[in-house]
Specification:
Helices cover about 50% and strands about 10% of the residues. It is of the alpha+beta class. A four-stranded mixed β-sheet has the order 3-4-5-6. β4 and β5 form a beta hairpin.
Length: about 375
Amino acid sequence: MGSTGNLMTPVDATDTDDLPDIVDVVMEMGRPDEAPSPPPQVLDSRQASLPAHLEKLADRARDYVEAASSANTRRAYAADWKHFCAWCRRQSFDPLPPDPQVVGLYITAQASGSGRDKKSVATIERRLSSLTWNYTQRGQPLDRKDRHIATVLAGIRNSHASPPRQKEAILRDDLIAMLETLDRGTLRGLRDRAMLLLGFAGGLRRSEIVGLDLARDQTEDGRGWVEIFDKGILVTLRGKTGWREVEIGRGSSDATCPMAALQTWLKLARIGHGPLFRRVTGQGKAVGAGRLNDQEVARLVKRAALAAGVRGDLSEGERGQRFSGHSLRAGLASSAEVDERYVQKQLGHASAEMTRRYQGRRDRFRVNLTKASGL
C-alpha cells in the first residue's frame, strides 16, 4: 500500500539521517546562552587553578554542564569546530582569536565548493552557529553581525537557499503494510513492531523512542520511561524544554495496538529493567543489555517502507531519501483527525504553528475555492 497522494511534512527540529538528531541542534544553535558544555580543554584549564578542596565540586559541576545538552549536540559542535580548524590550517590561518574576515572566507568556501564539498545554506548556518558558540565558550566572542560575515551570509542565502527538505509521512495504511513485512516469529521482528507502533502512536522522535526505559531512574542515559495501564501507556519524556507526558491508548485490534506490541516484546525479550529497545544478537536469539542507537530507527523505517512498497511510484533511491525516523512522527500529525491542540500536546510543539503546518498538508485541497467561486 502507498501513501495517499504526495503527502510531505516539515521536519520540526526532529530528525535527519546524515547526523544524529542534527536538526534539533540546528534549531537550538544561535542561542549560546542555552548551548551545551564548554570544550573539555577549557574546563580542564579552569579546574587546574582551583584549590584542592574544590576539585570534587568542580567535577560535579562539569557533570551538570554536560547534562545540560545531549551527546549528539556536543558531538555536532565539536565536529563543526574541528572542520573549521582544519580549513584554517590548510589556508595558513589561525582560528584564534576570531577574525570575521576569516570566518567570511570560510562560509564562502563552503558555499562555492563543488560536488560533495558544496554545502547547503542550512549546513553553513549550522556551522556558523557552532563557531559562534565555540568562540563564546573560549572567552573570545565572534560578532555574527560584522559586515564581513553578515553580508556574505545574506548573499549565500539569496543565491543558494532552497526549500527545506521534507520527509514523507507514514500514514496508517503505510504503517500496516510495513508491519506485515516484519517477522513476528523473531525477537528482532517483535522489537521492530513495537518501535514502529510506539513511535507512530506517540508521535515520538527517534531519539525519544530508543531513549525510553522500563521505569523511572533506571539508567543515566535514559530520556524517559513508560508506565503501562489498563487503557494504554503513559510515556514520560525529557526534552529540550523540560518534561512532558505522552498518552498512547490501546489500539482497535491487537495487530495494530502499540501496547500489545510493547508487552509482547518485553515478555519474550525478558526485559525487566533498563532500556526498552536493545540490539538483538546471537543470530536473533539473544537480547543485549545496551540501548539501541537512534539511527537504527531511521534505518528500520526506510527498510520497512521500501519492503512494503510505500510510494512505489518513486525510484528506490528517491524513496530511501524521503523516509526517516521522523516519518513516524509526521505520520501521526498528518493522520489524526482530532483538534489540533491534542496533536500539539502529543508532539510537544511549543506553538500551534508547526502543528497547523502538518494539518494544512493533510487538509490540502479539501476546500476547493475554485469550484466555490463558480469556475
